[in-house]
Amino acid sequence: MANQFSGNVFEKVTDETRQGEVLQGIEQGTKKMYLESYGCQMNFSDSEIVASIMAENGYSSTPNLQEADVVFINTCSIRENAEQKVRGRLDVFRMAKKQKPEMVIGVLGCMAERMKAKLLDEEKVVDLVIGPDAYKDLPNLLDQVESGQKAVNVILSREETYADITPVRLGGNGVLAFVTIMRGCDNMCSFCVVPFTRGRERSRDAHSIISECRDLFEKGYKEVTLLGQNVDSYHWSNEEENVNFAQLLERVALISPLLRVRFSTSHPKDITDEVLETMANHENICKCIHLPVQSGSTTCLERMNRTYSREWYMNRVEAIRRIIPECAITSDVIAGFCGETEEEHADTLSMIDFVKYDMSYMFKYSERPGTFAARKYKDDIAEEVKSRRLDEIIAKQSGYSLERNKEAVGQTQKILVEGFAKKGNHQQCGRNSQNKMVVFPTQDHVQPGDYVMVKMEDCSQATLIGTFIEKL
Ligand code: 5AD
Ligand code: SF4
Fold first, then answer.
1. pLDDT at 25 over 90
2. What is the greatest pairwise CA distance in the chain?
3. How far is ligand 2, taken at its centre, from the CA of residue 192, in Å?
4. 159 in a domain, yes or no?
5. Lining residues, ligand 1, CB within 6 Å
6. H or E segment at 389?
7. Residues 151-180: what's their mean pLDDT?
């Protein structure tokens, strides 16, 4: 399992560079399941739903592949290399199955949805293929496999939100939890496979979200991250009420001032001043917005079908700066999208200069089968040009990540303690409201889940280094 105190666990990492995480954490049951997850935070959250369904059906978890009766891999399709990684793991499972032929191998998630039954033809080792909206059907599919057939369910739903399933919290430290508030995406960005793998957008019942968050707080959790592909378009209603994202955020924030609230991901076309004002009004709504720009060029954004212009995006950034001056802004950026000119690339660089992001995930464009871009545009930027542009973006962003951290040096900030820092137990770590990792010398009386004040003394690009002031 990835170190639970590493930065990745707390960020929206729609990034296949995140290592697969092996499930541990459910105990009851006689049959054993081994589950590895890749990709974004939503996938990790889905694995918690899968774990819950499997526990109900008599499975316990094992971190030991060879011990498993059932091996699941929850997959990501966002870029080609994410899928390559899964293929590599299937090779390892093939070896394990040679030793234990009765072992069931299942592929879950986005790659299952994208490839459907074709995956069974290409990867003979796979027995079961199941898409992100079909997890309740897992017990039936396992029965089918037991009777000697291969099993597939990749039906996407317009309704499924798993609101009635209490996720089994995996791999955490009992302080931070992720709560899915909506599924799917209706945006159809031309480069993106997600609308095809996760289906139509739907919002989860607001009451089930609030009760899950309240329950987490009562169990001792101190931070919830509300997850969706596009949280700003959250809307749920019944006969009595209509709830938009700002209102949902406020309701979660009102559970307790001691419960921090984060959310991801915001879409620049949808983020409203009402959301920003709600953030400003509640100290416990963390001051960090992930607002992927993708490109700084209006013409490139048009080809990407992002439905906003460079000016619109800048206006949203200005609104954030006006309403929540201390707010961190992070981004996703794609280098070398179809037809990207040097001028368009320069616009992306100048956008980074304009926003001075606190952090960014930066990628080379990777063509995904079936997307609008794959069908209509040519993936015509040479690999070395993509690499050079990505390097330029990374170099610029690295400078600003450091600069933003330096701005915090000298300040005393409130940190939610998560545990020990990576390098041993002489340092503890946690995050400030802006989602920056802070380390400070270990205090005997400070535990994960405590709020402490720390004075920032120094920093690197990724971490703030501080001295302990007091426990709150
Ligand atoms: N190629 C490269 N990056 C992509 N992303 C989505 N699709 C692609 C693709 N085809 C990036 C976007 C998105 C993040 C989750 O992944 O930046 O915001
Ligand atoms: Fe993909 Fe765009 Fe939806 Fe994000 S908003 S998941 S990039 S289609």
1. no
2. 65
3. 6
4. no
5. 14, 78-79, 191-192, 292, 294, 332, 334, 363, 365-366, 368
6. helix 383-408
7. 93
Domain termination site, one of 406, 426, 443: 406
> What number does the ligand 2 atom closest to the CA of 193 have?
1
Owning domain of residue 47: 15-153
CB 393 within 8 A of CB 213: no
pLDDT band at residue 173 using 50, 70 and 90 as cut-offs: confident
Look at residue 11 and tell me whether its pLDDT is greater than 80.
no
Mutation probe of ligand 2 site: the residue of 12, 15, 230 with most atoms within 8 A of C-beta = 230
Tell me the pLDDT band of 304, cut-offs 50, 70 and 90: very high
Please tell me the distance from the alpha carbon of residue 74 to that of residue 224, in angstroms, as a whole number: 22
Question: Which ligand is located closest to the Cα atom of residue 267?
Answer: 2
pLDDT at 267 > cutoff 70: yes
The total number of structural domains in the chain stands at 3
What confidence tier does 407 reach under pLDDT thresholds 50, 70, 90?
very high
Q: By the 8 A CB rule, do 73 and 2 touch?
A: no
**Dihedral over Cα of 372, 378, 384, 386: its sign:** negative
Based on the domain organization, do 180 and 141 belong to the same domain? no
Residue 197 Cα, ligand 1 centroid: separation in angstroms? 14
Dist CA 430 CA 414 (whole Å) = 9
Q: What's this model's pTM, rounded to 2 decimal places?
A: 0.93
* pLDDT at residue 17, rounded to an integer: 37
Instruction: Please report whether residue 9 resides in a domain.
Output: no
Beta bridge partners of 105: 71
| Residue ranges in 304-341 assigned as alpha helix (H) | 310-323
**Which pLDDT band holds residue 348 (cuts at 50, 70, 90)?**
very high
Q: How far is the CA of 361 from the centre of ligand 1 (A)?
A: 9
Cα–Cα distance between 163 and 49 in angstroms, integer? 10
Residues 361 and 437 in one domain: no
Q: List, chain by chain if needed, residues with CB within 6 Å of any ligand 2 atom.
A: 185, 187-189, 192, 194-195, 229-230, 267
Last residue of one domain, picked from the residues 406, 421, 454? 406
Domain assignment of residue 169, yes or no: no
Q: Give the closest residue (by CA) to ligand 2 atom 4.
A: 229
Q: How far is the CA of 189 from the centre of ligand 2 (A)?
A: 6
> Does 369 lie in the same domain as 417?
no
Are residues 320 and 214 part of one domain? yes
| pLDDT score for 424 | 73
With respect to residue 50, please indicate whether it lies within any of the assigned structural domains: yes
Q: Which of 12, 79, 187 for a ligand 2 pocket mutation test, highest count of atoms within 8 Å of Cβ?
A: 187
